[in-house]
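Email to the structure team, subject: Response regulator receiver modulated metal dependent phosphohydrolase model.

Hi all, the expression group asked for a predicted structure before they design truncation constructs. Nothing fancy, just the C-alpha cells so they can compare against earlier work. One-line instruction: predict Response regulator receiver modulated metal dependent phosphohydrolase, return C-alpha cells.
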Amino acid sequence: MIPKILFIDNDKNILDSFRATMHGLRKEWKSYFASTGQEALDKLGKAEFDIVISDTKMPDMDGSELLRKVAEIQPDTIRITLSGHSDMQSLLKSAKHTHQFLSKPCNTEVLIGTIRKMMELRPVLTDHKVREIITGLDTLPVLPDLYIEITNELNKPEPNLQKLGELVKKDPGISTTLLKVVNSSFFGFYNSVSSPARATILLGTDVLKGLILGVHFIQKLDKDTLGPYSIEKLWEHCLQTGYLAKEICAFMDKDEQTVTNCFVGGLLHDIGKFVFITEMNKKYQKVLEHVREFGGPVIDVEKKILGVSHAEVGAYLLGLWGFNEEIVEMVYYHHSLDNCGEIFTPTHAIHAADTLQHELIPHSKGYIFSELNTDKMALANLLDHVNDWRAVCNNLLETNKDEE
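Reply from the structure team: attached below.
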C-alpha cells in the first residue's frame, strides 16, 4: 500500500509549494494537505497516515495541541514539526509529541530526503512486533528539551559558542558527563578541557546528541524499581563500547566521520534497553529474572518474552529521531551482523566492541552475553584481526583505569 503523508500549514504559499513539490513524487507516496488544525483532525479521522508534517503555529489550534491529538488518534504515526529558529518556545512545547524537527523555511531536498529516509526505514519502523511494543507504551519516548535547544543552536549558520555553553550547563548531569568524556584518555585530547562549550565543539554534534539521550534516560529512572539491575553499569558499558568501537574503526584506517559514527553507534547500541527499563519496567524485569534463573543471551530472552529485541526498538527510535542511517543500521544489526558482507563495516566494530567490553570487564554473574559472531567475521576475513582488536581495547581500558 502506498504511504500517506499529511502536510499542515496555515500559510497558503507554503502549502502550495508543498503541493507542487509532492506532485512529482506521487508515485512514491500520496500527499494530503490541511490549512488548519481542525481540517487536519478531520482528515485523520477518515484515513490512517504514515507521516504528519506540521507547522508549530495554527490559527485555530496551538501546534503542540494539534500534535498531541494526532498522537492520541494515530499513535504510531510519525510526527515531524516545522519550526523557525526564532520560534523556540513553540518548538519546545511541541517536543513532547514530536519525533523529528525540521527548520523553517525547509529546504526541499532536506524535506524529501527526510521523508525518503523514513520510508527506507519502513522494515524497522513498521515491523508488527516492534510497533506493537512501541505503541503499547503510555507515551512514545521523545527527545528531551535540552537536545532540541542545543540542536537548534548547532543548526544555525553561525552557532553561538557562549550560548551552547550556557545550554549545556543547564543540566549538571550532561555537563559533567560531557567533560568526563572529552577529558578521558579514550579521546586523546592533549589539553584539559574545562568549558562545556569547548567540549561540545571538540566532540561534535552527533556525540553530544548521543550523550544527551543516554543521560536523559538515566535521569528518568526510578532506581528503586530496578532491583539488582545496575543502570550505571549499563551506561558504563555503553560508553566503553563507544570508545572501543571508535578505536577498532580507527585501527582499520577508516575516515574521521566513520570513526565518530562508530563511537555514537556504540554509545547508543543498547538504547533500546533504556527504553524497556524506563517505559515497561515490570515486563523487562521478567526478562532479567528469566536470564538470572535459566541463563541465555539477553537478546534471545527479550525476543522470547517480549517478541522484540532492544536492538530493534533502539533502531526504531533512532530512526524516528533523525539519526543517520549508518548509526541506525549499527544499532539494528549489532548482534546479528545481517547487514555485513565480505568487507569490514562499522557494524563489525560495534559488534566486536560490545563483545570485547563484556569479555574484558565482566559485569553481572549469571548473565550469558552474546559471543562474537565468528561466521560473519570470517566472511569478511576479520578473524585474524580480533586478537589485535582485543589487545588495543584492553590497553585502552587499562590506561583509562590507571587515570581514574
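The longest helix spans residues 231-251. The beta strands are 4-8, 30-34, 51-55, 78-83, 100-103. Ping us if the truncation boundaries need rechecking.
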